[in-house]
Amino acid sequence: MADTLSSLLPALPSAFVWGASTSAYQIEGAVTEDGRGPSIWDTRCRQAGGIGDGSNADIAADHYHRWREDIGLMRELGIGAYRFSVAWPRLLPRGRGKVNPAGVAFYDRLIDGLLEAGIEPWLCLYHWDLPQALDDLGGWTNRECVGWYEDYAVLVARRYGDRVKHFATFNEFSVFTLFGYAIPWAAPGVSDRAAHLRAIHHVNLAHGAGVDILRSHVKEASIGGIHNRQAVRPASDSQADQDAAALLDAHWNGVFCDPQCLGAYPDLVAETIEPFVKPGDLARICRPLDWLGLNHYGPIFARADATTPWGYGWADTPPAPIDPAIGWAIFPEAFTEELLTLHHRYHLPIYVTENGCGGGAGSDQPDADGQVADSHRIAYLRTYLAALNNALTQGADVRGYFVWSLLDAFEWGSGYGPRFGLIHVDFASGTRTLKHSGQWYRSLIQNS
Ligand code: FCB
User: Fold this and answer.
1) What is the sign, positive or negative, of the torsion defined by CA atoms of 70, 447, 228, 140?
2) Regarding beta strands 328-329 and 312-314, do their DSSP bridges make them parallel or antiparallel, or are they unpaired?
3) Which strand (E) or helix (H) includes residue 407?
4) Mutate to test the pocket of ligand 1, among 127, 171, 412 (most ligand atoms within 8 A of CB)
């Protein structure tokens, strides 16, 4: 029997946003077209070993040229909202100074197209693609980056704020700072404690400034920050693993939400970050928000690892129901828990801005009839939506859910192995095919 909202999510509030998410760098391609400048991820893709499969995002899902077709597919899916990011280096090729009109015009077309299709644009200002020219000046480790972000935010707010009302300042603060500046799995690939702490604090300052800018320039703006939050569990009972997990938890889950919403850094971090904090900074970071975005995939298992800058490392997932088609263990109860933690700690409406699954290499391919029968993704989404329902039942104020992702896309670090889309993309030809999960999502939400 087909799933319905009332069978799967009986606790759903009557107004609920159903959407899908993407990010500029992962789908647009056209990295040298129409005056776009290079980002730190273009650089990363050109470094030996930078991306697992040696690929790059020069073409990716070719959304820069196929945006109109993609809006048509969103319409077919029946989503009410689309979360995307603006590429800073498309608007300001050198990160600051001269504006690139062709880049600005691209998002004008996209936003107008979405509104014509009756889809609410949710614009994220920063999904990791820092202009390379700014990284050459120290990027997020340089306090001046706050001012560069402010100028960029003013441009975005002035240009699009007449039509866009939902804004996120950043995507996954903790992920790009931790992996960009401490454990070098992401651009710009620095591995240094002080660089990590500086980046954390400067990104927090930029967030606070961004909130104020959006608030003052955009009438009826609804503003949030998007956090990747996962429970961090020690791999064993040893004191060393427990300490490692506690510090990783502070860096992953605490150092952004706490100062942004409660005005203080977590105790475990307060002392180390103090040298970078100036008087008045915390008041600048803690600005009133309308919502929190939660990106959730699964818990992290931590172990002590003396070879990393902070002494923590990733442990293997302990025996758990690993889904063979996804290659991950599924912990839906951790999702329920995280929604409740967020709700009780920060008292803000929550939008799930990413949740979804990749599928192992070779999965998600069209069969002889051209169908992409991704039943593992339907099972995953069903399980996680049931977990969301549990959180609603226990009082969490969850107002929307965005699947990651609308399209198969370039994946940070790994390239084109995992496919997260509701829509299959043949990367050689650009051809799109609605997967079975997309058909399932459509039928689920059509009567909401
Ligand atoms: C998140 C990122 C997103 C995507 C998913 C799979 O951490 O925000 O861009 O890569 O993971």
Assistant:
1) positive
2) unpaired
3) none
4) 412
280 Cα–ligand 1 center, Å? 33
Q: List pLDDT tens digits, range 405-420.
A: 999 999 999 999 999 9
Q: How far is 80 from 76, CA to CA, in rounded Å? A: 11
- Tens digit of each residue's pLDDT (9 = 90 or more) over 317-370: 877 777 777 777 889 999 999 999 999 999 999 999 999 999 766 779 999 999
Phi, psi of 134 (to 5 degrees): -80, -35
Catalytic residue status for 172 = yes
Q: Which one from 28, 120, 338, 354 is the annotated catalytic residue?
A: 354
Q: Any idea which residue has 């990783």 for tokens?
A: 248
What are the φ/ψ torsions at residue 195 (nearest 5 degrees)? -60, -40
Residue 354 falls in the annotated catalytic set: yes
Contact by Cβ (8 Å): 97, 35: no
Q: How far is residue 83's CA from residue 351's CA, in Å, rounded to a whole number? A: 11
Q: Taken in order 55, 56, 58, 60, is the CA torsion positive or negative?
A: positive
Q: What is the whole-number distance in angstroms between the Cα of residue 421 and the centre of ligand 1?
A: 12
List the strands of the sheet with 312-314, edge to edge. Answer: 232-234, 300-304, 312-314
Q: Which of 85, 47, 35, 37 is nearest to 409 (CA)?
A: 85
Dihedral (Cα; 291, 338, 180, 173), 10-degree rounding: 10
* Helical pair 63-77 and 436-445, crossing angle rounded to 10 deg: 50
In the chain, the amino acid numbered 203 is V
Spacing, Cα 432 to ligand 1 middle (Å): 21
Paired tokens of 305:
């690892």
Q: Transcribe 268-331 into DSSP letters.
A: HHHHHHGGGPPTTHHHHH----SEEEEE----EEEEE-TTSTTSEEE-PPPS--EETTTTEE--
With H, G, I as helix, E, B as strand and everything else as coil, classify residue 91. helix
For 383, other C-beta atoms within 10 Å of its C-beta total: 16
Contact 402, 84 (CB under 8 A): no
CB–CB of 416/404 below 8 Å?
Answer: no
Q: What percent of the chain is modeled with pLDDT above 70?
A: 99
Q: Supply the DSSP string of 44-73, one letter for each residue.
A: HHHSTTSSTTS---SSTT-HHHHHHHHHHH
In the structure encoding, which two tokens stand for residue 281, read together?
A: 């900074």
- Protein residue with least CA distance to atom 10, ligand 1: 411
The structure tokens listed for 117 are 């299709």
- The mean pLDDT of 237-246, rounded to a whole number, is 98
Exactly one of 120, 172, 338, 411 is catalytic; name it. Answer: 172
- Cα separation of 430 and 57, whole Å? 13
